[in-house]
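dumping this here before i forget
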Amino acid sequence: MIGEFKRGKPWNTNLFNSKGKKVGVWIKGKRKIQSKLEEISDSTVLYRSRKGGWTIEKNKNSDRVYKGQIKNGLPHGKGETIVWKNRLKMIGEFKRGKPWNTNLFNSKGKKVGVWLNGVKQ
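structure:
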């Protein structure tokens, strides 16, 4: 991200993906989408609201974070998600925003769940 920040937040800035392509812009603190989310690099971070839905901006309703590949604005491909409240961590493959082939770990690193082909085992 390159540009001007105000009170620690993007003001007049540009966001670039790992290939140098501009994928977003903030004008006077308001985000303007430059391209589709699926064009952002593999290291994309998304936040999910308690009410559902994924966004690239963290807000007071965010209950988890996802880091990994995305498609059409959803977790899709290899990645991991962390639920902040109970520190559960899910690692593996996601499809259309849902766990596909993943392992779920508790805060101590113990495996407590498995999803295979989108079905909890």
